[in-house]
Amino acid sequence: MKRMTTHRFGRRLVATGAIGAIAALTLAACSQGDPVTQETSDSGSVTEATDEMPADLVGAKIAIVQQAGQGDYFQQYLNGTRQQAEALGFELSVYDAQGDNATQATQLDQAISSDVDAIIVRHGFPDTLCPGVNDAIGKGIAVIAYDVNVSECADGVIQTQQSDEIMAQLVLDRMYQDIGDDVPVGYVNVEGIAPLDRRDAVWREYVADNAWDQLFKTGSFTSSSASDSAPMVAAAAQANPGIVAVYAPYDEFTKGTLTGLDQVSGTEDVLVYGADISNADIELMRADGSRWVATGATDPNAIGAAVLRTLALSMAGELNEELVEFPPVLVTQEMLRDEDIQNMDGLRAAVPELNLSEVSSAAWIPVVSF
């Protein structure tokens, strides 16, 4: 059944040929009034639209209100969002709460007050976001959420997310192949972040089913998760000698785990299993003596673009789903080394499933693919 969402868009049509060339892609203030920098250089290719865009979408104003923008994954996601917005001719404003939930709620209010047509809410906590999301929907602003579960407390939100259960299963299947049953393991994760909670549910099943002895759980989700988690991992590994593997299902946690274990003698053979992928992650996995065995991954650039396309379809009244999920793949250290994959471009060539160009597409949407 098609979801009926009240918004300010109709079905009048115009040609889209020159829209991308004349549209401005703007950047709003982050939490301290500074522009959000973009450190990734991934450049997508654009497949031009073959049909006309709904007239009321032309030059639409979109805000993305993100809980945190630091880290490889988030920077790539925003890169994909920016490039898809530019291709559509949308005006994009970015709000970055830098890991502060109260700030994200305030910035959501600011985005609503800025007269935008639609809002992407990316990560965060339902308790702090649902009042603003409901306010936005009540004012006719389309809302789409990525990796934050606000649909249960705000009717009219489109939910998007990675298939986190599959992502965890892919990695933990490999971890079981490597370490077997009844062994001591470590865990780096936090509670309250929707995708991490979904991965945690799978982890707990594998721990129980395989009689793994979880000796510690640690980690810190901040604007500097890798550096903040590293000393916590070091302390936990020092206090719990004998672990054979660590599961750290977010690449900033994985990087913090690698750094932390480097500080503890006797952990050289500890295997590390993670999530997400980036140029920096590939370099770490390929490095001589690297502990990072496998990661479950999507291409965040492709997801950022696909979420924006999903939002555009919803605004046009053409989306037939309330939940859109993006499938992950397993990336292993052997694959990267054996196929000499040195960066994301090489990985995309080797694993075409990472390309989400057919997700949330329409003849009137110019599709950015990576």
Describe what this molecule looks like in 3D:
The protein is 39% helix and 19% strand. By secondary structure, the protein is of the alpha/beta class. It has two domains: 13-161 and 299-326 and 354-369, Rossmann fold (3-Layer(aba) Sandwich), CATH 3.40.50.2300; 164-297, 3-Layer(aba) Sandwich (Rossmann fold). A six-stranded parallel beta sheet has the order 5-4-6-7-8-14, with helices on both faces. Strands 10-9-11-12-13-15 form a six-stranded mixed beta sheet, sandwiched between helices. It has a two-stranded antiparallel ribbon with strand order 1-3. The model is unreliable at 1-40 (pLDDT under 50).
Separate helix tally = 12
> What does the largest sheet look like?
6 strands, parallel
DSSP helix fraction: 25-40%
Q: What is the number of beta strands?
A: 16
What low-confidence regions span 5 or more consecutive residues with pLDDT below 50?
Answer: 1-40
- The order of strands across the largest sheet is 5-4-6-7-8-14
CATH H-tier superfamily of the largest domain: Response regulator
Rg, alpha carbons:
21 Å
Give the distance, in angstroms, between the N- and C-terminal Cα atoms.
Answer: 31 Å
CATH topology tier name of the largest domain? Rossmann fold
Structural class of the secondary elements? alpha/beta
What's the domain count? 2
Inertia-based shape: globular
The CATH architecture of the largest domain can be given as 3-Layer(aba) Sandwich
Report strand %: 15-25%
Let me know the average pLDDT: 89
The CATH C-level name of the largest domain is Alpha Beta
Oligomer: single chain
* H-E order: EHEEEHEHEHEEHEHEHEHEHEHEEHHE
